[in-house]
Write a structure and sequence with these properties.
single chain, 142 residues, two-stranded antiparallel sheet, 5 helices, 45% helix, globular
Length: 142
């Protein structure tokens, strides 16, 4: 029998200090995609967590701010990615079923990742935020 990780009822938090950056990159109903490249804060969080994990940067959240519920993650696509990210901090696969600890690790990778993204995007040049985000992600190896 396969165990399934259920994130319903789990609140996803980010550091209060980076909340404005999240908001700056999330689409507004009438906004242009060039200026607001992400549809939701969840999307920003996923990219930030992946960047933090890629750079192996982990930054504890100092002042927590809940931004969305864990039930917005796609259980077949995004939850396995979050598990892979959290596994960098675990020694046993069974540890992944400690949902609060798994999410805390992902939040801390995302906290570091958003700082990396913020710095790279703010210091890059380009047309709109969408193009700067794409350029940063394209060059994540460099």
């Amino acid at each position: 029998m396969t165990k399934r990780i259920d994130l319903r009822g789990i609140r996803i938090s980010i550091d209060e200090s980076v909340h404005p950056f999240y908001e700056d990159f999330v689409s507004r109903s009438a906004g242009r995609v060039e200026d607001y490249p992400f549809a939701t804060m969840k999307d920003v969080f996923m990219v930030a967590a992946c960047v933090g994990a890629k750079y192996d940067q982990y930054k504890e959240i100092k002042k927590s701010r809940g931004v969305f519920s864990g039930d917005v993650f796609d259980p077949d696509f995004e939850v396995p990615i979050l598990c892979a990210i959290a596994f960098k901090k675990f020694s046993d696969v069974e540890d992944l079923f400690d949902i609060e600890q798994m999410i805390r690790h992902c939040q801390n990778y995302a906290n570091a990742g958003i700082c990396i993204l913020q710095h790279k995007i703010e210091t890059s040049v380009g047309l709109g935020k969408l193009y700067r985000v794409a350029e940063v992600l394209r060059n994540v190896e460099k």
